[in-house]
Amino acid sequence: MAQQQMVKEERSLGDLFSDLASDTGTLIRQEVALAQAEMTHKATKVGTNVGYLVAGGAVAYAAALAVIAGIIILLARVMPAWAAAIVVGLVIGVAAYFVITSALARLRRVDPVPRNTVETIKEDAKWLKKEVT
Known about the structure:
Elements: H1 2-10, H2 13-75, H3 81-108, H4 115-132
Helix pairs in contact: 2-3, 2-4
């Protein structure tokens, strides 16, 4: 321990600042890499839920076309065709509403802030302040 202190005391101020600059550069590169990894993970979650929104919309549209064609023809036998179209449209609209609101709710739960990076940057600032003083 005493030898470590002696070695530390023997180093020049220039060496210390050089090491500090090198360590700070390494730290910044690591923080950028962490932020990039965290944002990639969050973007993947958002992309997946956007995909579900698109798929839900496409399924609702396809269902609307098929159901409207089949059920309107069937219901037109017992009621006017316009009434059959309204009934079928309402049923499909309700189904589409639930798919879309479910996907939107999942999107709202995704936190876009890179929390891990923010915490490590705070720790790094404390470390840097300690090294400079």
